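Handout, section B. The chain below has 287 residues.
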Amino acid sequence: MEESAEESLDYFGSDYREPPQRLPDAECRPLFNERWITAAYRTAEIGIDSEALAVLIRARLAADRNIHCHFGTSVIAARMASGEASIEFKTGEKKGRARYDHIVNSLWDGRLMIDKTAGIEPPRPWLYRVKHYLRLKQVNDGCCLPTITIVLGPFGDIVTYDNNEVFLSWYPAGLKGLSSDLSPPPWPLTLDYDTSLKVRNETLQALAKIVPAVARLSSEAIESCEIKAGVIFAWGSTDIPDPTSSLHERYSIGPHSFGRYHSVDTGKLTMAPYFGKKLADWILKRE
């Protein structure tokens, strides 16, 4: 907040510096089970539909003539020599190499591996996790569900969107793998029927204990459920049940530059635009 004191506010029309406000008990009772929730706070944070955001980003990339997209291509290495930066890539069975004025590694679960090919070692222990979540498509009664994050103990999230879709996750049910390898294993993001059903039921049951409205979801809404997944990267060596785990700390992140090679430690999706602009400004100033 101190760093943003001199910057203009642009957080979807709200002031992100507004401090959390504890909800009065009369407002909490209709939303939460008092046995499990002792306090709730309203924050300036908002929920973003990452699927809708991805559609906008793809359209923007396709529309800008200054952006050249290479589809079906994988970067396999980055090299720095004599002040020059280049990448090695693979398209199908063909390999190639290209030089650039600057290279920005903004990969997510592949960033550490490419950093290593450029001679950059991770500065501390890390963990990859794969977490599955629910996306309900036909929630006509979605307005009854609050957008919340349960932040203590095994945690969960509920995000309601304007298109009657709802995101639901419960960490103990959705977590299906941890790895401290340089690259995560090829975890299946699509589960078999029995495992999907187990994730769905355990997620709904756990959240319903805390938010009773989850138990009142219609059968149509539940049957519209899709089980999806994503890989999480974070610095740390132990999982979140450990209160001292570094996974609880996401503040030591950002872009790191090594000559003409730059590696962006995003930390969380919401930080990507800020770090992207920060790095772009720095490169333009340097040039």
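Note. The chain has a mean pLDDT of 90. Compare this with the example in section A.
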